[in-house]
Write a structure and sequence with these properties.
Helix 5 packs across helix 13. A hairpin with a 6-residue loop joins strand 21 and strand 22. Helix content is about 25%, strand content about 25%. It has about 600 residues and is an alpha/beta fold. Strands 11, 12, 13, 14, 15, 16 and 27 form a 7-stranded mixed β-sheet that branches. About 50% of the residues are buried.
C-alpha cells in the first residue's frame, strides 16, 4: 500500500505494508533473520528496542514502548530485538550495544540514525522518535532556503547539564545560543514523610507551593516525573506561545496575567509579551529557585492510597496521628532506575501534574495528536518538499491548539491548504468566558490565515477516521462531510486525566467534581490545582422561562484563572494544620489572586457579538 508517512515534521512518499496493528502487534518482534528484510521492505522509519526479558529496566520500558508505538501507528514503525537469544548476538554487536535496554532509530533502508535517550514515558518516546526522523531531513528542509522562519525553539533541541555548588543549571540550546535554565535541585530521593506532597513541578505545582510557603506551611516537597521544571512547556510545538499577554504592570497594581506569584512577571523575566514555551519554563524555574522549593526530579507517582499518618513532634507542630496518604513513586534518572519503588507519606496531596502527558485521541483509530508535533514550520516545509504540498492537511478540533496549528501551517507554505473541522464554531461563539472561545490574538491570526484562501473552517461532528479509498490516503468522516487527505490527520482533541487519580475523584464527563476549596469530594485531603480545575455553579437571576441550562461552568484553564485558586488551597491546608500565618496571603488578596467565591458570571456590557 502506497502511503504518505508523516514523521516529526517530515513527509515521505513511501511504501508501507500495513500489519493491521493492534495493541498486541504494535511492536514487531525482530531477529537476526528478519531484521534487514522487514526494515527495507516496509519503507518506513523504525524505532527498535534492544532488550533482555530478565532485565528490570527493560520490563519498565516495554509497556511504554508499546504505548508509543500505538501513538504513532500511522507514521513510524516500532520493533524489538530479544538480545538474550544467542543467535541475535551479531545483530546487537553490530551496533555496539553494551547495555539494555537500548533504543535506536533507523531509516527505511536500515541505516542507524541515533540512539534515543529519553525517560521511559510513552509521550516522550513518541516525540523523540519523531525528532529522530526530522534529524535525517534537516538538510532537505534547509534546502528550501526559508529565511522567514522565526528563531524559535528548534524541534530537536537538547539539554546539557552541569552542576555547581549552588544549583543545577541546564543549558538549553536555542538557535546556537546557550540559555541557562535555573533549577532548584533537591538531592536524591524524596523524604519518607512530608506535610504536603505536590505532584508536578509545572506552573501549577510551583505556584501552589509558593502560596503554601506564604501561608506558613514549609514541610512541602514537589515530585516531578521529568528532570526539569515546567517540562510540558518545553515540549510544546516550537512555534507555540502563551495566548494571554504579559506586561510588567505589577508596580501599577495589575499583576502580569501570566505570573504565578504577586511579586513576579514573565514579561520582566523573558522580555516577551507572548512567551514561547521554553521562555515560560525558564520563568517558572527561576520562581522555584528564588523560593528554594524542594523539587525531587525523576519521581513518577504511580499510586495514591488514603491511610493514617503519624507525624512526630517538632518545633512548629505538636505532631500526632492524622488521615493522610501513602504515595508510591518510581524514581531514578532518565527512567533507568524506573523499577526502584519507594513509598512516601504525607498528610495532604495536591495534584498539579497537568494533562499534557496524556493526549486524548478520543475514539479515532488513525491520526497524530497535535502535542506530538515538535514544529509546524518543519512539517509544512517537509510537506512542500514531498511534492504533495497542497494537501490538504486536516485538523480535527477547533479550539486553540487546532487553530494554532492551522495558522502556522498556512503561514509557512504558499501552496498548502488546511481544513479545520470542529464540532462547534469557536471562531464565532458569543461567550463571555475566554475558555470557551478563541483568544483575540488567535482570532487575529485566523483572520490573516483566511485571507490566503487556503484555510477552510467546517462545523461537523467527526464520526471516524479510516484508511481512504485511494491508496496512501486517510478519510475523515463527519455527519455532513467526507474528506480525504494524503497526510495523517492532526488530532487537536485535547487531553485526559492521569489514571492514577481516576478512582480518587467523582467525575462528570472529563471533569473532576471538586468541593468549594478544590478538594476531592470522595478523598479528603486530596486537592487539585491547575488547568483541570472545573466547577459548576447555579446561575443567578435566570429568567423563569429561560431555555438555558440552570448550571454554569467555571473553567480555570488559563494561568491567570487557575492561579487565583493557589491561595484558596494553601489557606485551607494551613488552617487545618493550625499553621496559617496571619496576613500571609494578603498580597494574593490585594493582587486579585485569591478568588474564594466562584461567581465569574459578568458579561460584557457593550454586548458586541463576534462577526462570523
Amino acid at each position: 500500500m502506497t502511503r504518505f508517512i508523516l514523521f516529526c515534521g517530515i513527509v515521505f512518499l513511501s511504501t508501507w505494508h500495513s500489519t493491521g496493528q493492534t495493541t498486541e502487534t504494535a511492536v514487531t518482534q525482530l531477529n537476526i533473520d528478519n531484521f534487514s528484510t522487514i526494515l527495507s521492505q516496509s519503507s518506513s522509519f523504525w524505532m527498535i528496542d534492544f532488550y533482555t526479558p530478565y532485565c528490570g529496566h527493560c520490563k519498565a520500558l516495554a509497556p511504554e514502548w508499546k504505548k508509543a508505538a500505538l501513538m504513532l501507528k500511522d507514521v513510524i514503525r516500532f520493533g524489538a530485538v530479544d538480545c538474550s537469544i544467542e543467535d541475535n548476538e551479531p545483530l546487537y554487536s553490530k551496533y555496539e550495544i553494551g547495555e539494555f535496554p537500548t533504543m535506536l532509530a533507523f531509516t527505511p533502508t536500515g541505516i542507524l540514525i541515533r540512539e534515543l535517550d529519553v525517560p521511559f514515558v510513552a509521550s516522550e518516546i513518541a516525540r523523540e522518535a519523531m525528532s529522530s526522523v526530522f534529524a535525517v531531513a534537516e538538510d532537505r528542509a534547509a534546502s528550501q532556503n526559508d529565511q522567514d522562519h522565526p528563531a524559535t525553539q528548534p524541534a530537536n533541541f537538547h539539554w546539557q547539564v552541569t552542576v555547581n555548588s549552588d544549583a543545577e543549571i541546564d543549558e538549553l540550546q536555542i538557535g546556537g545560543e546557550d540559555v541557562h535554565y535555573h533549577v532548584s535541585q533537591a538531592e536524591g530521593v524524596a523524604p519518607g514523610l512530608s506535610d504536603v506532597i505536590v505532584v508536578g513541578a509545572g506552573p501549577a505545582g510551583v505556584g501552589v507551593a509558593v502560596a503554601l510557603q506564604k501561608a506558613g506551611v514549609h514541610n512541602v516537597v514537589l515530585l516531578e516525573k521529568s528532570h526539569r521544571v515546567a517540562d510540558s512547556f518545553l515540549r510544546w510545538p516550537a512555534e507555540m506561545r502563551l495566548l494571554t499577554p504579559s506586561f510588567w504592570s505589577n508596580p501599577f497594581g495589575a499583576v502580569d496575567l501570566n505570573a504565578l506569584t504577586p511579586d513576579s512577571s514573565p514579561a520582566f523575566t523573558t522580555n516577551a509579551e507572548h512567551p514561547y514555551g521554553y521562555q515560560y519554563a525558564d520563568y517558572v524555574a527561576k520562581v522555584a529557585a528564588h523560593y528554594e522549593l524542594q523539587i525531587y526530579y525523576n519521581h513518577t507517582v504511580t499510586e495514591l492510597i488514603p491511610t493514617t499518618v503519624t507525624i512526630p513532634e517538632r518545633e512548629d507542630d505538636a505532631g500526632g496521628t492524622f488521615s493522610g496518604f501513602n504515595v508510591t513513586v518510581k524514581w531514578g534518572s532518565n527512567g533507568v532506575d524506573g523499577q526502584r519503588t519507594r513509598m512516601l507519606q504525607a498528610r495532604y496531596v495536591i495534584w498539579a501534574a497537568g494533562e499534557f502527558g496524556f493526549p486524548d485521541p478520543l475514539h479515532f483509530k488513525f491520526g497524530v495528536h497535535s502535542s506530538l508535533i515538535p514544529s509546524w514550520h518543519d512539517l509544512a516545509i517537509s510537506a512542500a518538499a514531498s511534492g504533495r504540498s497542497k494537501g490538504p492537511f486536516i485538523i480535527v478540533g477547533g479550539f486553540e491548539s487546532g487553530i494554532d496549528a492551522a495558522c502556522e501551517l498556512v503561514a509557512v507554505d504558499g501552496d498548502l491548504h488546511v481544513i479545520v473541522i470542529a464540532r462547534s464554531p469557536t471562531w464565532v461563539l458569543d461567550e463571555t468566558d475566554p475558555s470557551k472561545m478563541l483568544a483575540p490574538a488567535t482570532l487575529h491570526r485566523l483572520q490573516q490565515a483566511q485571507l490566503t484562501g487556503r484555510l477552510t473552517l467546517l462545523v461537523d461532528e467527526v464520526q471516524s477516521i479510516k484508511e481512504g479509498p485511494t491508496p496512501g490516503t486517510w478519510q475523515v468522516v463527519g455527519q455532513e462531510h467526507q474528506l480525504e487527505t494524503p497526510f495523517p490527520p492532526i488530532l487537536a482533541t485535547g487531553f485526559k486525566a492521569s489514571p492514577v487519580i481516576g478512582d480518587l475523584f467523582n467525575w462528570k464527563g472529563k471533569h473532576s467534581i471538586l468541593s468549594g476549596v478544590d478538594e476531592s469530594t470522595v478523598t479528603p485531603g486530596l486537592f487539585l490545582v491547575g488547568p483541570a480545575v472545573w466547577h459548576e455553579r447555579k446561575k443567578h437571576h435566570q429568567k423563569k422561562d429561560s431555555t438555558e441550562p440552570p448550571q454554569q461552568e467555571v473553567v480555570f484553564c488559563f494561568i491567570y484563572k487557575f492561579r487565583t485558586r493557589f491561595g484558596v488551597v494553601a489557606q485551607q491546608i494551613a488552617q487545618r494544620m493550625g499553621m496559617l500565618v496571619p496576613g500571609g496571603l494578603n498580597e494574593y488578596i490585594s493582587a486579585g489572586m485569591l478568588m474564594e467565591h466562584l461567581n465569574p458570571s459578568a458579561s460584557c456590557n457593550c454586548g458586541k457579538k463576534r462577526k462570523p
